[in-house]
Design a protein that fits this description.
The chain is mainly α and about 100 residues long. The protein is about 80% helix and about 0% strand.
Length: about 100
């Protein structure tokens, strides 16, 4: 069995990469991908905690949380991608700095 510290390190690494992607990128699609990476890191923690705290396979709280986060991520991508397509059709670019200046 894989130690919980390794799983938590993997999750922390993915979450850190996701935060860096959100803060450093200016493209809206990459920001959405980074948010998905952060959600997946949280799901890994849920599943690892569920597996670590239950001795039997009967406790499936982590898997249930995975399904809830998966549906949340799917709805986020559907709405976010439709907004991205609408912004690209209207302004012909996806640069956050240029889109932010449009509101002034």
């Amino acid at each position: 069995m894989i130690p919980i510290s390794w799983v938590l390190f993997l999750s922390l690494s993915l979450f850190t990469i996701g935060i860096f992607g959100v803060l450093a990128r200016r493209n809206l699609l990459f920001i959405l991908i980074s948010l998905e990476l952060m959600l997946n890191a949280v799901v890994i923690v849920f599943i690892a905690a569920s597996r670590y705290h239950s001795a039997s396979m009967a406790n499936s709280d982590g898997q249930i949380m995975y399904l809830l986060v998966l549906t949340l991520a799917a709805s986020e991508i559907a709405v976010g991608l439709s907004l991205v397509i609408h912004m690209y059709r209207q302004h012909h670019h996806l640069d956050i700095d240029k889109l932010n200046k449009l509101r002034d």
